[in-house]
């Protein structure tokens, strides 16, 4: 368990180091709009979004995580696929350039599973052919931030804790019309309402973030599927004791796409000490 805690600290420190070195919550109500949009209950509509993704089955995903502190900002990007019924996904995560302009980082392959995160090409003394396994419930942010990309289904399950929401209106996204909602979610409530695989990580996030209230903007298509969701988190960096503001954005598209995610076997998982980069 101590090793898992150390790993969580290492990963967060690794991503946040580049930041340190180099929101509005809505209110309950029907909001604007016309026809069925105006009649729908925004809070109930947003809370159903995670279940609608399970019904959709799978999709492709793009992620973006922007961290800011002390006037410095970095962005980490990811792209991959996700199976919402099995809770399995695969993302390729690209780290930002260092302040000198040198990329120097190989893309990290991440496998997402209920309660677990697997990373390959993490570096920090891990052999190139090995995976690192992290129990997400052992991380102070529940892997909403640590992996550099919020698990797409976890991002949706945060919305199960929606306390306030309002309908902003219709807009266009990726060539299609979507409905925009803005509000705030309570991580503690989300943890109670989450699927069995998500309760531990969301519970850890509720305890570990600077605040359990998460402002969000979410864009749903006419079938109620999330096409884009943006959360705003904040946490205190353990080393510099600075508040780090995080904007995590997930885009979902090509629903029903084929997803073949195979988790590593025990012999492919690294069991040694992880060096601090």
List the helices and strands and how they pair.
Layout: H1 2-21, H2 36-39, H3 42-47, H4 49-56, E1 58-69, E2 72-83, E3 88-94, E4 108-113, E5 116-120, E6 131-135, H5 152-158, E7 162-173, E8 176-186, H6 187-193, H7 196-208, E9 213-220, E10 226-236, E11 243-253
Antiparallel strand pairs: 1-2, 1-11, 2-3, 3-4, 4-5, 5-6, 7-8, 8-9, 9-10, 10-11
As residue ranges, the low-confidence spans are 1-35
Largest sheet: 11 strands, antiparallel
Helical residues, percent: 10-25%
Number of helices: 7
How many strand units?
11
Keywords:
alpha+beta, eleven-stranded antiparallel beta sheet, 23% helix
Explain what the structure shows:
- The protein has 277 residues and is an alpha+beta fold.
- Helices cover 23% and strands 36% of the residues.
- It is built from 7 helices and 11 strands.
- An 11-stranded antiparallel beta sheet has the order 6-5-4-3-2-1-11-10-9-8-7.
Provide a short characterization of the protein structure:
The protein is globular. It is an alpha+beta fold and 277 residues long.
